[in-house]
Hints:
Number of strands: 5
Low-confidence stretches: 1-8
Structural class: alpha+beta
Strand content: 15-25%
Mean pLDDT: 87
Shape: extended
Oligomer: single chain
Amino acid sequence: xxxxxxxxxxxxxxxxxxxxxxxxxxxxxxxxxxxxxxxxxxxxxxxxxxxxxxxxxxxxxxxxxxxxxxxxxxxxxxxxxxxxxxxxxxxx
Length: 92
C-alpha cells in the first residue's frame, strides 16, 4: 500500500510505502529486523524503538537504491496472517 504526497515547496512528489517488517528477538538481546518483500534487507536494534528506527532507515535506503536503478518496487497486495499453531507430538 502506498500514498501519494505532493510536496508544494520543491515541486517534487513523495510516496509513502508500507511494508511488513519482522522483529525477531535476538538471543543476545535486541531485535533482528527483516522484510519479507526484500530478502537481504536486514538490520538490528538494541531496543524495539531503536530497531524500528533503523528499519525505517534501511528500508528507505533500499527503496532509494531500487529507484536509482529503475528497478521494480514490490507492492503489497495483502497482509499476512500471523498466528501460533499448537501441535502435540508423540516422543515415545
